[in-house]
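Quick check before the chapter quiz. The format below is the same one you will see on the exam, so make sure you can read both the input and the output lines.
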Amino acid sequence: QVQLVESGGGLVQAGDSLRVSCVVSGPTFSPYNMGWFRQAPGKEREFVAAISARRFYTNYADSVKGRFTISRDNAKNTVHLQMNSLTPEDTAVYYCAADARGTGYYASRSPTQYDYWGQGTQVTVSS
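Here is the expected output.
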């Protein structure tokens, strides 16, 4: 049973920084390719960032590139998303996702690539 648990969300002001994290547990011995997605009210779920299980290839949405940084600690089965220079447009529920089918070198932008999802953590940025 693969489980993903996000944490670190909260209420911040525009210009502030926030770090959300995701801890993964499951039956496999290898780390997963991981992604972060977000969904705001009235909008479709959108890709934010991804990182591969091996070599740590990364992929970012244009809207967050240069502001957000995805990282991982395989020893702790944890992936992080450091969010800087936050704006109200970043307000959303942030979800982490795990790719159970990849070979370890994928950092996909497509939600269909991911097999497991966390419950999400709310990030609210006030103006």
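If your answer matched, good. The chain has no helices and eleven strands.
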